């Protein structure tokens, strides 16, 4: 009897079984969300079904390798890189002061929200601040591990739950009457390439594939933020600007990249490890909603300053990540290059400037507490 139980347990812990089970739930989620006409269905559907499945079927521990997530990010990075042209770079140079201003405003608002929530909840301000910085999940979690007195579980939960909220709320807002947009026709977009386009795609595919993978690995080696996204994006951008023509990927490849990303994110959230679940969940909900509200107000101001569509400005300032905003932008035909630049600038600012600033703030807070 013990041997049978051990054999059953061994079968359930097999990596292939765990991975294929997660795949089955991810695909079911994508089909279901597509059936009910949800925006970015393969990303949201896979994320939700994998998250629920991993909590309901506790006998099998779902498994999703980071390499598959990284492959999805390389595909997204290639797509983002295609949107850059020489005229785009000129436009970005003109908007650089605005990027600095709006990034600073968004981060200051996040700090203000964290301060108010800290007063209301009694949770230390440094922990809430690190959980509230938008678009810096990996950087903030890594920094939180290095700092004393930071509750890593709360930081991770706030960052991941905000990411999940944004992935749901932003698409629903974009397709609501508030923005008056319609989805792009994927079939029509895919049909533009035609048979000649796909032959051209195959002839250049090897070059773009090698460059994307190479730049991703170099980015990882030099510890670049989100290397598997930014590396391929920079590599594709350089090839595109040097005269090599890239082609839009087929719709099914983009859907597959959504599954690769969504399933991984679905397994990140582990509410069972959280103390005071109700309290922290309420804080995460309030934090995310207020940040989205701030992003909407700032996007209206940005749209007026630079005469760009509100959808593009909102996706540029949304407190999520480039990959999620890129998926939504593709569906509404927003300006990918502008969105990517604003999101990229904020990512780099968070990576290089925010950690030393946070250390300075935390030292000041500690000195004040000691004096008191």
TrEMBL record:
One of its GO terms (cellular component) is membrane. GO terms for biological process: regulation of gene expression. InterPro entries: AbrB_dup, AbrB_fam. The chain crosses the membrane at residues 16-36, 42-60, 72-93, 99-120, 163-181, 201-219, 226-243, 281-303, 344-362. The keyword RNA-binding does not apply. Pfam families: AbrB. Keywords: Membrane, Transmembrane, Transmembrane helix. The keyword Membrane applies. NCBIfam families: Gneg_AbrB_dup. This is AbrB family transcriptional regulator. It comes from Paenibacillus ginsengarvi.
């Amino acid at each position: 009897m013990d041997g049978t139980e051990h054999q059953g347990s061994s079968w359930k812990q097999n990596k292939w079984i765990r991975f294929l089970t997660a795949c089955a739930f991810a695909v079911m989620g994508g089909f279901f969300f597509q059936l009910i006409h949800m925006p970015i269905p393969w990303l949201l559907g896979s994320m939700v079904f994998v998250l629920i499945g991993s909590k309901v079927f506790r006998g099998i521990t779902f498994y999703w390798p980071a390499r598959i997530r990284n492959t999805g990010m390389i595909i997204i990075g290639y797509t983002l890189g295609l949107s850059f042209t020489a005229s785009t770079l000129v436009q970005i140079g003109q908007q650089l002061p605005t990027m600095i201003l709006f990034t600073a405003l968004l981060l200051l608002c996040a700090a203000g929200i964290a301060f108010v929530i800290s007063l209301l909840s009694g949770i230390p301000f440094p922990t809430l601040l690190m959980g509230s910085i938008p678009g810096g999940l990996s950087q903030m979690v890594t920094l939180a591990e290095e700092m004393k007195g930071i509750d890593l579980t709360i930081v991770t939960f706030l960052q991941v739950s905000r990411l999940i909220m944004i992935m749901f709320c932003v698409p629903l807002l974009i397709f609501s009457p508030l923005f008056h947009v319609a989805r792009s026709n994927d079939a029509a977009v895919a049909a533009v390439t035609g048979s000649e386009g796909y032959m051209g795609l195959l002839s250049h595919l090897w070059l773009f594939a090698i460059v994307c993978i190479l730049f991703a690995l170099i980015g990882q080696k030099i510890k670049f933020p989100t290397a598997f996204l930014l590396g391929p994006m920079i590599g594709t951008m350089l090839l595109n600007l040097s005269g090599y023509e890239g082609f839009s990927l087929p719709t099914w490849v983009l859907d597959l990249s959504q599954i690769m990303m969504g399933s991984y994110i679905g397994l990140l959230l582990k509410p069972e490890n959280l103390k005071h679940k109700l309290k922290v969940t309420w804080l995460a909900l309030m934090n995310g909603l207020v940040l989205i509200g701030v992003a909407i107000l700032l996007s209206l101001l940005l749209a007026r300053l630079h005469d760009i569509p509100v959808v593009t400005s909102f996706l540029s300032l949304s407190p999520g990540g480039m990959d999620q905003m890129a998926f939504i932008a593709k569906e509404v035909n927003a300006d990918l290059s502008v969105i990517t630049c604003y999101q990229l600038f904020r990512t780099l600012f968070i990576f290089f400037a925010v950690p030393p600033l946070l250390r300075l703030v935390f030292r000041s807070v500690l000195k004040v507490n000691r004096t008191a």
